[in-house]
Design a protein that fits this description.
- The protein is α/β, with parallel strands linked by helices.
- The strands form 2 sheets. The chain has a 5-stranded mixed beta sheet with strand order 2-8-7-4-5. A 3-stranded mixed beta sheet has the order 1-3-6, with no helix packed on it.
Amino acid sequence: MKKVMSLLFLSALAAPAFADECTLTVEANDAMQFNTKALSVPATCKEVTLTLTHTGKLPVAAMGHNWVLTSTADFQDVATAGMGAGPDNNYLPKDDARVLAHTKLIGGGETTSISFPTEGLAGKDLTFFCSFPGHWAMMKGSFKVG
């Protein structure tokens, strides 16, 4: 019985560690910066949960941020097209298949989360960025699965 309890305890400890590999947190601030330029998850992750926290104080209309994932080849075209989509569409072209995942636009002090599948993303050249007009030139980084 003691051995079974020990195994149960150890397996309970191991489960959250595995889940944490598939959970990411990114911060954005009023200086138009993410706190990282690179994110990665292991190929074993079937789904990623990403939380974006805006650590600044400015409102969404003045300094809104989101987190958008595209292929690197599509990044600039999606960012440019998003400028005309407006804040109601999170500055993203509506129903654009090139957008692989995205959060909503948030202002200072706010947090948002998304979960998205990783199927087909392993080994791809991916970029994450903020699509708020003018931000994507500075607020971007690489995303890797595997």
